[in-house]
Design a protein that fits this description.
alpha+beta; 5-stranded antiparallel beta sheet; 4-stranded antiparallel beta sheet
Length: 294
């Protein structure tokens, strides 16, 4: 394994990019790091991973099919492996990087991103004090523990933990405390906001409407209920769980015509309750159909 102190200091070679050095220091602290391009966004996927062609799972996450060496998949590219951070496949990204980010959930952390002074004032009145980091316009409040990430939980407040990234702006001040229930409650969605807007076009049109000759309605209902439960019980790797569940449902029921728009909307509902975006639901469904040749 490569460590920061092991990298040769050849005076005839260009020094390491500053953002790469910062990322290596984060890795030594156990914070999975990744480069950010201009605009504080992750670098786009390589050609092999564009439009989730690889299965939309980063190579350093167990259970995913993607083995791409490039810094693909946004937050999922974050790693503590110095060999990956210093690999040739990442060199171009570090040369072009404008900032460094880390995956809070990968380090068992949750960041409450307070985007302006009003949000900071609200947090000081309603949330337990913890380690804070000053940002350009507000503050990051960092708690020990993980939870579902969600943006816009209230005006100027985002939650960054699992399946998300936060910009590294320094170690901060204050003593970190455990993740309180008051923060967890911010990410709880109201049931009325869950209904997806576009599951209507998800039913494979070339099989929809045919009579199911080999499965009973009760068999289908059990299958959908089990799929909903599997998504509900997922704790991590939400992308993978949703994709594999969609694939299993399509494998069992997608060819015989018994799968309806209502069934698919139920699956989308379950995924979005767990924090999966509508776009990721649509991508996972499309990838599952493509995998089966539908």
């Amino acid at each position: 394994m490569t460590h920061l102190t092991d990298i040769p200091r050849d005076p005839g070679r260009a020094p390491l990019p500053a953002h790469l050095r910062a990322a290596l220091q984060l890795a030594e602290l156990g914070l999975p790091a990744l480069p950010l391009r201009e605009g504080k966004a992750p670098f786009g996927n390589c050609r092999a991973c564009t439009r989730s062609a690889c299965g939309d799972r980063p190579h350093m996450k167990a259970g995913g099919p993607c083995e791409c060496p490039a810094p693909c998949h946004g937050w999922g590219a974050a790693t503590t492996d110095p060999d990956i951070l210093t690999s040739p496949a990442w060199a171009r990204a570090w040369r072009q990087a404008h900032a460094v980010a880390y995956h809070p959930g990968g380090a068992s952390l949750t960041v409450v991103d307070l985007d302006h002074a009003e949000a900071v004032a609200w947090a000081r009145q309603n949330l337990p004090a913890t380690k804070t980091v000053a940002t350009t316009r507000g503050e990051h409040w960092i708690y020990l523990g993980t939870m579902t990430s969600r943006n816009d939980v209230r005006p100027g407040v985002d939650i960054k933990s699992l399946m998300s990234y936060a910009r590294w702006l320094g170690p901060g001040t204050g003593r970190m405390r455990g993740l309180p229930d008051t923060v967890r409650a911010l990410a709880v969605k109201e049931p009325t906001t869950v209904r997806p807007a576009s599951c209507a076009g998800a039913v494979p049109t070339f099989v929809a409407g045919r009579e199911c000759r080999h499965r009973s309605p009760a068999y289908l209902e059990r299958g959908i209920a089990m799929a909903e439960q599997r998504i509900k019980e997922a704790t991590e790797k939400i992308h993978t769980t949703v994709y594999r569940t969609f694939l299993a449902v399509l494998t069992a029921h997608g060819w015989c015509g018994c799968l309806t728009e209502n069934h698919i909307c139920r699956l989308f509902d379950a995924a979005q309750v767990k924090g999966e975006s509508l776009r990721h639901c649509e991508t996972a469904w499309a990838n599952a159909r493509m995998k089966l040749g539908m």
